[in-house]
Amino acid sequence: xxxxxxxxxxxxxxxxxxxxxxxxxxxxxxxxxxxxxxxxxxxxxxxxxxxxxxxxxxxxxxxxxxxxxxxxxxxxxxxxxxxxxxxxxxxxxxxxxxxxxxxxxxxxxxxxxxxxxxxxxxxxxxxxxxxxxxxxxxxxxxxxxxxxxxxxxxxxxxxxxxxxxxxxxxxxxxxxxxxxxxxxxxxxxxxxxxxxxxxxxxxxxxxxxxxxxxxxxxxxxxxxxxxxxxxxxxxxxxxxxxxxxxxxxxxxxxxxxxxxxxxxxxxxxxxxxxxxxxxxxxxxxxxxxxxxxxxxxxxxxxxxxxxxxxxxxxxxxxxxxxxxxxxxxxxxxxxxxxxxxxxxxxxxxxxxxxxxxxxxxxxxxxxxxxxxxxxxxxxxxxxxxxxxxxxxxxxxxxxxxxxxxxxxxxxxxxxxxxxxxxxx
Length: 424
Prior knowledge:
By secondary structure, this protein is an alpha/beta fold. It has three domains: 3-133 and 303-318, 3-Layer(aba) Sandwich (Rossmann fold), CATH 3.40.50; 137-297, Dihydrodipicolinate Reductase, domain 2 (2-Layer Sandwich), CATH 3.30.360.10; 341-421, ACT domain (Alpha-Beta Plaits, 2-Layer Sandwich). 37% of the residues lie in helices and 28% in strands. The chain contains 15 helices and 17 strands. The protein has helices at residues 13-24, 26-33, 63-67, 83-94, 104-120, 129-132, 137-144, 159-171, 175-185, 193-196, 199-213, 232-240, 302-318, 358-368, 396-407; strands at residues 3-9, 36-43, 59-60, 72-77, 98-101, 125-126, 150-156, 223-224, 243-254, 257-268, 280-287, 291-298, 343-353, 373-381, 384-391, 394-395, 412-421. The strands form two sheets. Strands 7, 8, 9, 10, 11, 12, 13, 14, 15, 16 and 17 form an eleven-stranded mixed sheet that branches. Strands 3-2-1-4-5-6 form a six-stranded parallel sheet, with helices on both faces. Helix 1 packs across helix 13 (302-318), helix 4 (83-94) packs parallel to helix 5 and helix 5 runs parallel beside helix 11. The longest helix has 17 residues, at 104-120. The radius of gyration is 24 Å and the shape is elongated. The mean pLDDT is 94.
């Protein structure tokens, strides 16, 4: 029986999970591939690195030991970051080795170069674990739905923020309190900025939209907002209106142009995504061919992510001999639709002076920009009131032009809270 050797870069949370699954499920992998898949080398920075699940004899601090080993056919990059990972992946591909990675930021920034290099050298680059953890959305898009003309990719693609927003809704706690708890539980990093500011989700949406729409999207093409401005007060108001807050990745093709974004949004409590709680992820794929498909599962964690990596390894091993290599399916070059031309619904919460005529001024400014109010609730008393408005669908450029003028009114206090409303 043939043997396929694995060179593993990084033995951290996900890397150790990969090592554990390769050993624990060796028989299953052998049956699935008809080959022995063995871990031959593990790259770590320190020669003193130790892990209870790692044979020290496999450890190396030199990438060349992996690159120059003819018994290693597949390099699995799990070190994270961009610069070193890019160098390692390019060198491995040019050396004729297949690459499996979970590195979303690298792919979102340098995916084109990596995919073209892989194709040029007749090897595979696989990255299922880079997008939505154990949810096999990339495989579904690349294989099952490759000819389905997907027009929308819409969903929850970051487990950290989904846990935080779910906890805020359940407990009424504010953002800072929930973030501390997420860090204590290991859902959020010590520096959570990549998650809470939306960059992690944006990188994933760049990858997913490129595959779904067959047109290359980079991180620079994705506008993103995080959840740092979402307050317990807004989540409570949303609950009273039958709405649930989620950080959504939304990619659409409209009249031959695409728009890819990440932002916090309210969705109706009856929407399937509203019940996706904790650190779970879910993605909707929409097409005229099949209407709508939802994929759901854990979006992070050692074993779920490692499972996606193992799936890619098996895919590579099963096609390692004599297969047609087609890594990049980006055969289109769709232009991007500017955000201000997108049509959205909005939730708006304003603190205003509680005196006659204020609502009339707000309504008049919205009317000047053809923005229509769907519903309005006024609360409070004394010197200040709170207006909570839901707006009809409107072109975003018009809404934000009106909002700029409303903010300038002397009767409007502080910064308005603005959250899009999706899924209706």
